[in-house]
Write a structure and sequence with these properties.
The protein is built from six helices and eleven strands. The protein is an alpha/beta fold. It folds into two domains: 102 residues, Formyl transferase, N-terminal domain (Rossmann fold); 93 residues, Rossmann fold. Strands 3-2-1-4-5-6-7-11 form an eight-stranded mixed β-sheet, with helices on one face. The chain has a three-stranded antiparallel β-sheet with strand order 8-9-10. It binds the ligand Nc1nc2c(c(=O)[nH]1)N[C@@H](CN(C=O)c1ccc(C(=O)N[C@@H](CCC(=O)O)C(=O)O)cc1)CN2 and glycinamide ribonucleotide (GAR). The site of glycinamide ribonucleotide has 15 residues, from α1, β5 and α6.
Length: 217
């Protein structure tokens, strides 16, 4: 039985495309039931339509509060009755009530080696901080921003000639590997959540998750 997933986006949707491709090829046991974007011009909506997946634009600008937007978003998501909600470049901070509703069944991918560089503009900040390495983290979503239990991380070196754009490209390549893997582990019931902690095969994960290497199954 494939895991029913709803994916939230705000932009290009390359992570969404990685999930679509790997689910269509049977590499991950998921069925993407719907894609929802808070930006009506998100290219990821076109990716969903091309894959025959219901695509919805729900603009936060049409609501007078974060709570009212989140309530509408939750109602739309729950029409599809997902087992997992996947944030894939979704650029809105979610309310505590919303994150509690999906606690333990909502993932996010963040372009930094958490707990470093929470928030926005992570590639630029890592370069400006003269970091030698950077990367990406997949984590369960909690009310506190970018502070949920980390599942998987992948790293890349920052070279002297790297720009935020070149670094983003390197990180994207890592994202497209570790996000589908994380979702697949959840679909297999290998990845679980309990009382704020992440577990793989019933073993608690370290606070920075597992470092991704190609030999991970
Ligand atoms: N309660 C939570 N909400 C969200 C989380 C989370 O962990 N807890 N993860 C984020 C994703 N994210 C980083 O990975 C992130 C997204 C958006 C922002 C942000 O500052 N958004 C601004 C608007 C920015 C914009 O529109 O460009 C805002 O919401 O006011 C920070 C981090 C998803 N939500
Ligand atoms: N704070 C959240 C955040 O910055 N997420 C980042 O947005 C990009 C979305 O790319 P995509 O639309 O091509 O998947 C990804 O790099 C993801 O890590």
């Amino acid at each position: 039985m494939k895991l029913a997933v709803v994916v939230l986006i705000s932009g290009s949707g390359s992570n969404l495309q990685a999930l679509i491709d790997q689910s269509l090829h049977g590499a991950i046991d998921v069925e993407i039931k719907a894609v929802i974007s808070n930006k009506s011009d998100a290219y990821g909506l076109e990716r969903a339509k091309s894959a025959g997946i219901p695509a919805h634009a729900l603009s936060h600008k049409d609501f007078d509060s974060r709570d009212s937007f989140d309530n509408a978003l939750q109602s739309l998501i729950d029409q599809y009755n997902p087992e997992l909600v996947v944030l894939a470049g979704f650029m809105r901070i979610l309310t505590e009530d919303f994150t509690r509703h999906y606690e333990g069944r909502m993932l996010n991918i963040h372009p930094s080696l958490l707990p470093k560089f929470k928030g926005l503009d992570t590639h630029k900040r890592a370069i400006e901080a003269n970091e030698k390495e950077h990367g990406v983290s997949v984590h369960f979503v909690s009310a506190e921003l970018d502070a949920g239990a980390v599942i998987l991380q992948a790293k890349t070196n920052i070279e002297a000639n790297d720009t935020p754009e070149t670094l983003a490209n390197k990180v994207h390549a890592l994202e497209h590997k570790i996000y589908p893997l994380s979702v697949h582990w959840f679909a297999q019931k290998r990845l679980t959540f309990d009382n704020g902690k992440a577990f793989l095969d019933n073993k608690a994960l370290p606070t920075t998750g597992i470092t991704y290497h190609t030999d991970l199954s």
